[in-house]
RNA sequence: GGGCUCGUAGCUCAGUUGGUUAGAGCGCGUCGUUGACAUCGACGAGGUCUCCAGUUCAAAUCUGGACGAGCCCACCA
């Protein structure tokens, strides 16, 4: 029975949490294989893998809190529950971090070290980050099955990546082509559309005389090769010019001939309604050139310098050349006027901030609009052999609710994104990542993980976009392409829980990969949480100095309080604003729970639980009934993914009903020897069941008290107690 | 240009399908307790739920509009 000295007045999370987490791990119940037989139906969540680029932030903490609530709740409801952990190698982010460190510390680049040495260095950094992150995840109380931990760049995941690539290649969905891509001249790699960050910049806008036309541009340095002049077919101002007309004119470096092109991509309202195009360095221009089969010429090299076509400017960086070119245009009287107040949108790499220079390059792509016969049976609404495209598949599974997105409004955002999806460029010119499983020998090409037989084969130098491997995450973590028991049991996974900011990057790509490769959806429900912001709603960032580190909060106030501060007072898909005060407030609540327990334990030292409950008075029955009503409400909220509401109900019940009313009113009753026993029974019962319902939210303090309560048939841990509703 | 979200107490935010005196955290006032509680309890101050119009027996909640804040997407050279 409880002894006073074991029950300090103040709950001490620092002392309790490490001990309790060990108890859980020792119990083995994080691993579904160890759960008692009664836990039958599978329930699974794969943890969105944190990047191994540093440490955990509050967004991760929120994710861990939400997912652990779901997992612990479902486990207590009797599901065979798997929550599978892992980390992401985050190719480009990790490599650029290490490259920056290398340059700062030793003034060296990756090329000074060479591929093997450099990768060793990145590997060490990733390992270190991994260890820190995994430790932090444990500190949050996450009931993850560590025995199944995965890494997006380990051997098993490499097998999955290679297999996926090969199947998609053989299915005609992965192809190699010369297309316009986002090129980062400093990092010397392509960057995906989604990783572009647009920055507004005030820049002069030049109106140039181009024969009889006036063309506007913010980028005169790209204009050397412009020999097509494009206008809208319906623009009456230029009706006299016919598609294909050839017009001789004087241009930057002498006489050229311009060809008239009519295309609807031109906005008649903008500038003069006429433009020249640079297909090699602009996406719109590239697309126009493709439509009319126009010539494309490279003006800027991969380092950002002008090529010989620029005449005397060849070899100059574009930024440096621009004013000189303007000067020349002015001297030749080709500059009509300048708009100094033009706001231009500049594409930058969100990883590192470098300016993006579009280039046409030979890259690997996933075709999203190419028709193919669907190779699987069993996906609702699409028969085996039926013609479809990746894009249609992605729309189909969400439209038919085989994947449900919560909150619902994000469905619209998803559809919009998928509808506008272009072929996905998956090759990257960085070293850290999955190497493209393609081999070349002269003109020959062979796709596969192993080097083909015979001499002279060389593997593609490039690596895959990091989202290619994370797109396989729900599959690869369960053992695919092998037909494992895990894959059979836990796929499709039950819920994918993540921040709405990676709906496109990740969620959409998992749907893409899984429906194609397996003919199943990767998950049934997507729950999107908001971004964690500071108390003024600003993004947490180092430069603002408003970063709250989750581990600091856990150290100061405990994991339970940290979790509650992220769970309560937040709505699905809505940003969460967090302050230390808030965490402190929930620390007080955790302490209140502790003292409710402490009171109950001290007043039931002489109470022995019996198989048959003692006869109850009307007041006792009322207390039980009131609790059951509350418990049902909380459960209903959980079923609707209303974590905040569920926790709030229990918060309010425990503090303002159980403590303020039930306990206060019980004090005299417990003095009465005739009524004492029934009241003790009720207090222990209600407290025990409250702890069960609160356990998913605040697992530590509830476990700590549960261990001390006088109960019959007590389980090894509260984790596997049955949900009381 | 398209789309989305938000505008509720001094501050940061909840409010489930429209229904009795609109809630939480922090802050504030008075009193009480200090033998469950870094306290805690009781009571209280403080809100025209941005504004306007509409639907309804009834709206913070639904509809339309205005104003304000923020986010996402997009090929305006």
Give a description of the structure.
This protein is α/β, with parallel strands linked by helices. Among the domains are: 194-358, Isoleucyl-tRNA Synthetase, domain 2 (Alpha-Beta Complex), CATH 3.90.740; 555-720, Isoleucyl-tRNA Synthetase, Domain 1 (Orthogonal Bundle). 40% of the residues lie in helices and 18% in strands. The protein contains 21 helices and 29 strands. Strands 6-5-16-20 form a four-stranded antiparallel β-sheet. Strands 11-12-10-13 form a four-stranded mixed β-sheet, with no helix packed on it. Strand 1 (42-46), helix 2 and strand 2 form a beta-alpha-beta unit. Helix 16 (559-567) crosses helix 17 (580-603), helix 17 (580-603) runs parallel beside helix 19 (643-669) and helix 19 (643-669) packs antiparallel against helix 20. The protein is elongated, with a radius of gyration of 32 Å.
């Amino acid at each position: 029975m409880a002894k006073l000295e074991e029950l300090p007045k103040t709950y001490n999370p620092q002392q309790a949490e490490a001990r309790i987490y060990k108890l859980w791990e020792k119990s083995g119940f994080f691993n579904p294989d160890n759960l008692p037989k009664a836990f039958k139906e599978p329930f699974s969540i794969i943890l969105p893998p944190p990047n191994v680029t540093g440490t955990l932030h509050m967004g991760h903490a929120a994710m861990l809190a939400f997912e652990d609530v779901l997992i612990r709740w479902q486990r207590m409801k009797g599901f065979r529950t798997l929550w599978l952990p892992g980390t992401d190698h985050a190719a480009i982010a990790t490599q650029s971090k290490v490259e920056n460190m290398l340059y700062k510390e030793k003034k060296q680049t990756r090329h000074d070290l060479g591929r093997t040495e450099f990768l060793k260095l990145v590997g060490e950094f990733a390992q270190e980050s991994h260890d820190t992150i995994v430790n932090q995840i444990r500190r949050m109380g996450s009931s993850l099955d560590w025995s199944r931990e995965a890494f997006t760049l380990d051997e098993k995941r490499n097998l999955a990546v290679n297999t996926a690539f090969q199947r998609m290649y053989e299915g005609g969905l992965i192809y190699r082509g010369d297309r316009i891509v986002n090129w980062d001249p400093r990092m010397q790699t392509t960057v995906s559309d989604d990783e572009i960050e647009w920055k507004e910049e005030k820049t002069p806008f030049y109106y140039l005389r181009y024969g009889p036309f006036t063309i506007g541009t913010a980028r005169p340095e790209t204009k050397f090769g412009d020999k097509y002049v494009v206008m809208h077919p319906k623009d009456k101002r230029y009706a006299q010019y016919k598609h294909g007309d050839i017009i001789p004119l004087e241009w930057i470096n002498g006489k050229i001939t311009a060809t008239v092109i009519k295309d609807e991509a031109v906005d008649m309202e903008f500038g003069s309604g006429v433009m020249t195009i640079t297909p090699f360095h602009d996406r719109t221009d590239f697309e126009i050139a493709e439509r009319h089969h126009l010539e494309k010429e490279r003006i800027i090299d991969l380092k950002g310098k002008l090529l010989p076509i620029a005449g005397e400017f060849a070899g100059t960086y574009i930024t440096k050349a621009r004013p000189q070119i303007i000067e020349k245009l002015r001297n030749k009287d080709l500059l009509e006027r300048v708009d100094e107040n033009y706001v231009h949108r500049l594409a930058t790499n969100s990883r590192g901030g470098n300016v993006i220079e579009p280039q046409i390059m030979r890259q690997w792509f996933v075709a999203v609009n190419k028709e193919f016969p669907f190779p699987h049976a069993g996906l609702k609404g699409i028969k085996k052999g039926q013609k479809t495209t990746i894009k249609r598949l992605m729309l189909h599974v969400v439209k038919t609710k085989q994947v449900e997105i919560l909150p619902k409004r994000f469905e619209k955002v998803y559809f919009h994104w998928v509808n506008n999806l272009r072929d996905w460029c998956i090759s990257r010119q960085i070293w850290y990542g999955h190497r493209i499983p393609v081999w070349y020998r002269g003109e020959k090409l062979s796709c596969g993980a192993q080097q083909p037989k015979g001499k002279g084969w060389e593997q593609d130098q490039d690596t895959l976009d990091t989202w290619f491997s994370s797109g396989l995450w729900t599959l690869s973590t369960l053992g695919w392409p092998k037909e494992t028991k895990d894959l059979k049991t836990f796929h499709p996974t039950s819920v994918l829980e993540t921040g709405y900011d990676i709906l496109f990057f990740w969620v959409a790509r998992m749907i893409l990969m899984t429906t194609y490769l397996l003919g199943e959806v990767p998950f049934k429900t997507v729950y999107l949480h908001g971004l964690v912001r500071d108390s003024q709603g600003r993004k947490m960032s180092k430069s603002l100095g408003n970063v709250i580190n989750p581990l600091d909060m856990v150290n100061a106030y405990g994991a339970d309080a940290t979790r509650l501060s992220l769970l309560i007072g937040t709505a699905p898909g809505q940003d969460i604003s967090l302050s230390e005060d808030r965490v402190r407030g929930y620390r007080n609540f955790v302490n209140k729970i502790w003292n409710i327990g402490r009171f109950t334990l001290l007043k039931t030292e002489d109470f022995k639980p019996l198989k048959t409950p003692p006869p109850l008075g009307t007041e006792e029955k009322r207390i039980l009934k009131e609790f059951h009503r509350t418990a049902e409400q909380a459960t209903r909220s959980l079923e609707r993914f209303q974590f905040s509401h569920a926790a709030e109900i229990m918060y309010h019940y425990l503090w303002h009903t159980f403590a303020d009313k039930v306990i206060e009113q019980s004090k005299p009753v417990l003095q009465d020897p005739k009524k004492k026993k029934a009241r003790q029974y009720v207090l222990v019962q209600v407290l025990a069941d409250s702890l069960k319902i609160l356990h998913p939210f605040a697992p530590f303090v509830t476990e700590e008290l549960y261990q001390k309560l006088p109960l019959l048939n007590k389980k090894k841990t509260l984790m596997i107690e049955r949900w009381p509703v």
